[in-house]
Specification:
alpha+beta, 1 helix, 5-stranded mixed β-sheet
């Protein structure tokens, strides 16, 4: 596998955005929906040989690594 990439999940006003290193995935109404979208994007990237780490942010500090959380 190549270099590990990072996907960031951030709250923007009333919605959540997933930064995936290209066009962001915007407009998720819940944190859980944004995490699910980030995990799906990570699965697709992994299939192409990329290693992904997902972070959930609250302001300037990451509040958790969402990469290894069990699926709901």
């Amino acid at each position: 596998m190549g270099k590990k990439r990072r996907y960031d999940i951030v709250r923007e006003g009333a919605t959540w955005t997933v930064g995936v290193g290209g066009p962001s995935l915007r407009g998720y109404l819940s944190q859980d929906a944004a995490i699910a979208a980030a995990r799906e994007a990570a699965r697709q990237a992994h299939a192409m040989g990329q290693e992904i780490q997902i972070f959930l942010w609250n302001g300037a500090e990451p509040i958790e690594d969402a990469s290894d959380q069990p699926q709901k």
